[in-house]
Amino acid sequence: MSFSGKYQLEWVLLKLGKYFRIGLPDDLIQKGKDLKSISEIEQDGDNFKVTVTTGGKVIVNTFTIGQETELDSITGEKIKGVVQREGNKLKVSMEGIESVTEWVDEDTIVNTMTVGDIVYKRISKRV
Q1: Could you give the number of structural domains in the chain?
Q2: pLDDT tens digits for 59-115?
Q3: CA within 20 to 30 Å of 56's CA: 7, 8, 34, 105, which one?
Q4: Cα 36 to Cα 8: distance, rounded to the nearest angstrom
């Protein structure tokens, strides 16, 4: 199974404590209305390159499964972590952030980031 492909963000789910909020706050929805987040994953064995483009902002991370790497966060900070593969999932822990990217089926990936009791889930479909 290969993660390789280009995926467009379809849905966001945010959980704050024990409450779920579907989507994002109205002001953020309005600001991001015309922005299409595209994730492109290139996989060559255990080596990955992930490019996320949102509007004019581009984040590129390269890593090898099981090796420490420095990853760019959505805030622009560089965070060290080791990405592990468990079946159809890529997992990484970075400074209190747990990130799991799951290949649900051939057309869907789900990225879940957890910080304490806050859960941010992004569902993307292959384009």
Answers
A1: 1
A2: 999 999 999 999 987 667 889 999 999 999 999 998 888 999 999 999 999 999 888
A3: 105
A4: 7
Task: Specify the pTM.
Answer: 0.81
Read off the CATH number of the domain in which 96 is found.
Answer: 2.40.128.20
CA distance 21 to 25: 9
- Alpha carbon distance 124, 116 (integer Å): 24
Backbone angles phi, psi at 33, to 5 degrees: -55, -40
Per-residue model confidence (pLDDT) at position 65: 98
Q: In terms of residue numbers, what domain contains 56?
A: 5-126
Q: How far is CA 70 from the centre of its chain?
A: 15
The answer to whether residues 62 and 78 touch, using CB atoms and an 8 Å cutoff, is no
